[in-house]
Design a protein that fits this description.
This protein is α+β, with helices and mostly antiparallel strands and 203 residues long. The chain contains three helices and ten strands.
């Protein structure tokens, strides 16, 4: 008996082995590393593809929404060109924050996310954009297509998290939120990150 075409004999690497999604950049696959319930920052290990503990959260602030990355993207020269105040891309997959009305309390899940905007962030001189999306199947957010339709308080909470998530009692982190942008610009950033990925790793 032959295995079905979608069967993976070994676990696929979530960055390189998963697809971007057939409707990208409007709807993309997102691999979730962290949830709003996590007091520890988790991050995919680039060598093995398994989720590892990066560090305990440095403050009492926790991610206000699901947080992960878009597979087969890379923040390199093309992403940096859209973030002119940065020095270079951060060399990681493109981060994504996903809003959902129903709580998802575990990481290492894959979901479809409808892109509505983003936040241009510079971390230590490196372009580190955060795409903002809503869970595509979530009926509560079904009519949301742009960040301008998302409650301001929720975006402010996200800003605060990223401005403080690396802060320590002895000093401030070198993190700067430059601007927020809508769905059209966010999709340009995703396309740029796909080009960067192809240049770094091949198609």
């Amino acid at each position: 008996m032959a295995f079905p075409k979608t069967f993976y004999r070994w676990r696929p690497h979530p960055w390189h082995g998963l697809g971007l999604g057939s409707n990208a950049p409007d709807v993309v696959n997102a691999y979730i590393e962290m949830t709003p319930f996590d007091a520890v920052k988790y991050e995919v290990d680039k060598s093995t593809g398994y989720l590892r503990v990066d560090r305990p959260q440095l403050t009492s602030s926790m991610a206000p929404m699901l947080y992960g990355f878009v597979p087969r993207t890379y923040c390199g020269a093309q992403v940096q060109a859209l973030s002119p105040k940065s020095e270079h891309g951060d060399g990681d997959p493109l981060d994504i924050c996903v809003i959902t009305e129903r709580p998802i309390s575990r990481g290492e899940v894959i979901l479809r996310a409808r892109v509505v905007g983003g936040v241009q962030m510079i971390d230590g001189g490196k372009a580190d954009d955060k795409i903002i999306a809503v869970l595509h199947e979530d009926r509560f957010w079904a009519d949301i297509n742009d960040i301008s339709q998302v409650p301001e308080a929720l975006i402010d909470r996200l800003h605060h998290y990223f401005e403080t998530y690396k802060s320590t009692p002895s000093g401030d982190a070198d993190v700067q939120i430059v601007e927020r942008y809508g769905a059209k610009r966010a999709k340009e950033v995703i396309k740029a990150a796909c080009i960067d990925y192809e240049e770094a790793y091949g198609g």
